[in-house]
């Protein structure tokens, strides 16, 4: 099994364009979710898997008296983060550490479901939070996809889902289990915010999924999950404004480290 950012989501120009489409489609929902945890202006925030930096940039504006640490395993797309209260760091969440009780807020979007040993990572993040600090994890709940009555759409989306599961160990049901898991690991005041998305051809959401599914094309075909014709048909569908499909639900789940541990 490969590593996230190694066999899929490699830092190429195509990935930069995919991240730009993801930001356009999903940033506002992320900002709405993060606003629910009442960010204070002096907080030290950690943005994991910062991608092209849009969420880190937004966080920096929320904490003018604080600091944002933006990390990724490859930071080449974070060069535009020029705010004085942002520092960029190359960091592997799976293998590397931060000191205990460093951060008031830790945020990760579309990251944890792709990584191994998720429970151990959540324990690690718990340690990195200050007492009273909050973890916010965003990820996709996949179940609405198969409610769409369009074989081309389901074939393309599920080929991507199965390819990521096979290649990097992605678990598309992780977000559905996360609230209970946070409680088991000692997080308190757990909450969930859900954002449903319609995938209409020709819209930013459809463009994001067109680019995302395309990145799995060769690997999925090699694995026998779909054919070139299937991917071509999916690409065409994502440009068709008469198509409407159920997109995965973006779930934002948070939990706090207790004030007294």
Automatic annotation (TrEMBL):
Coiled-coil region list: none
Domain Methyltransferase type: 46-135
Alphabetized Pfam families for the sequence: Methyltransf_12
GO BP: methylation
Keyword Methyltransferase attached: yes
A GO term for molecular function: methyltransferase activity
Keywords: Methyltransferase, Transferase
Keyword field contains Magnesium: no
Stored CDD domains: AdoMet_MTases (cd02440)
Name the record gives this protein: Methyltransferase family protein
Protein's organism: Labedaea rhizosphaerae
